[in-house]
Amino acid sequence: MDKKLKITEIAAQTGLSISTVSRVLAGKANTSDTARQKVLACAQAQGVLQGMAAGRLLINSLVVFAPQRAFDERSDVFYYRVMQGISQALAAHEVRLRYCPLEELGSDANLFLSKMHDAATEAAILIGIDDPHIHDLAADIGKPCVLINCRDRKMRLPGVAPDHQLIGEYAAAYLFEQGHKAVVNLLCLRRYTMELRLAGIRDAWEAHNLPFDEAQHLISAQSFSARESEQLISDFLAETPRARWPSAWLVGGDFMAAGAVSALQKAGLRVPQDISVMSIDGFNLAAIHDVPLTSLHVPRDELGSEAVHLLQQRLIRPQAPVGNLLLNGTLVVRDSVRRIRPHKAHTAVQNEGLYDE
């Protein structure tokens, strides 16, 4: 058994015998429930269970391919933190970690091949690389490879990603459950993952028997910036009769939410008293313009660690079926969304005329 298990220490802390602790950690049935709970609680506190589940990685060198912007926290904090998650997951292993920038589409195939054929490269992780040619090359080379937040459409490479569609559906459903029927979505649809979120949002509208009309209920942004979002919402407020203003905005990122709140406040509207704002992101800005932000957290830090675990499984069971692990989001309720109670005056903004009911 691994020396890191510290069976003697667990026995001393729990008052149980070394043989009892050993049987529990080995999964034997001839132990009492009380002893089992004591050992597992102590092992969990010491990080022993995590080490047992992770095990040895069985490789000494790993290459991470990602878009250039992922290497700069200011350019893409999401992917930057994903890479930090990979590094942290590998901290317990003696693995040399190397990085290589690669474009999402139109990737440099020769660069990819040179890195993959390098004798020092034993496995690879691809972050956000959508180029199908790169996926084909990775599968054909045969070295263990895991995708993060992208998918191999030929289903030969395993991957881990947020469940974008379900995340979009749950975010929209939360607003409906809070009594909002007049909702406008502000999204940046520059990648298929955002299209999946929009598909989930549509699913929520359909599930609540509400007609979704892109002309009324969707504003597409070219970026995730606060400045562009502020301008788009300011233009919307200027061009749309007050009776058709929404009671809530669902936006595709925290910086977009910051722009939304800024535009609403400059228009003399209070968040959430007059109009609610909800974000699908939830990591960068816990509060915007003194308004605590209600958001649906998209899994981010977990992607790296789960990719490493998935890679471990591929190394141990290379012939196992290939699939994609989709991670759920987490709802964080703060103060930027107000609950609307039926048949009560809830807001200074009037919503009549936005829908035919």
UniProtKB/TrEMBL annotation:
InterPro entries, A to Z: HTH_LacI, LacI/GalR-like_sensor, Lambda_DNA-bd_dom_sf, Peripla_BP_I
Gene3D superfamilies: 3.40.50.2300, lambda repressor-like DNA-binding domains (1.10.260.40)
Superkingdom field: Bacteria
Pfam family, one: Peripla_BP_3
PROSITE patterns for this protein: HTH_LACI_2
Coiled coil spans: none
GO molecular function, one term: transcription cis-regulatory region binding
Domain HTH lacI-type as annotated: residue spans: 5-59
Keywords: DNA-binding, Oxidoreductase, Peroxidase, Repressor, Transcription, Transcription regulation
PANTHER family from the UniProt entry: HTH-TYPE TRANSCRIPTIONAL REPRESSOR CYTR, LACI-RELATED TRANSCRIPTIONAL REPRESSOR
Name of the protein in its database record: Cytochrome-c peroxidase
Organism for this UniProt entry: Chimaeribacter arupi
